[in-house]
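Figure 2 data, in text form.
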Amino acid sequence: QVQLVESGGGLAQPGGSLRLSCSASGSSVSINTLGWYRQAPGKERELVATQTRPGITRYAGSVEGRFTIHRDNDNKVGYLQMNSLKPEDTAVYYCNADLFIGRDPYPRDYWGQGTQVTVSS
């Protein structure tokens, strides 16, 4: 069964760091476009960062220079390195990926289960 499994959330102090991971399970799976989104209480889900397979990245202005999206294609894992965390970064973070599966030429959209990130002193 193909799915995205997230890990790495938790509690961090302001100015601290966390790294989120997103693993794509299933045989014959490869990651095309990778994305991270977040949703704070009472707010809509928003884009945090995306990365295309060739490595073109895009960041929300609120995280530019603090967060880094990257991946390990061989191991089918995506990452979001979060540095200089702020209380306003508190949210549930979701991994999103277009996955190529087997010989299907069209990628399919998958979401992770979400992981809580809380930034507080």
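Caption note: The radius of gyration is 14 Å.
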